[in-house]
Amino acid sequence: MIRHLRISSRRHLPLLLLGLVAVTLTGCLDASQYPQSTLTPKGDYAEMVDKLFRTTLWLATLVFIVVEAGLLWAIFKFRGKPDDAEPKQVHGSTTVEIIWTVIPALVLAVVAVPTVQTIFETAKVPAASPDGQAPLRVDVVGHQWWWEFRYPELGITTANQLHVPVGRTVDLRMKTVDVLHSFWIPQFAGKRDVFPNRETRLWFTAKETGAFPGACAEFCGIQHGRMDFYVMVNTPEEFAGWVATRQTDSLLGPTGLPKPPAAPVVDTTAKAGKGDVVVATAPAMPVAPAAMADPKVAEGEKYFASKGCIGCHSLNSVGAPKGMIGPNLGGIGVRKMIAGGWLPNTDENLHRWIKTPQLVKTGVLMQVPEMTDAEVDALVAYLRTKQ
Question: What is the pLDDT of residue 249?
Answer without folding.
Answer: 67
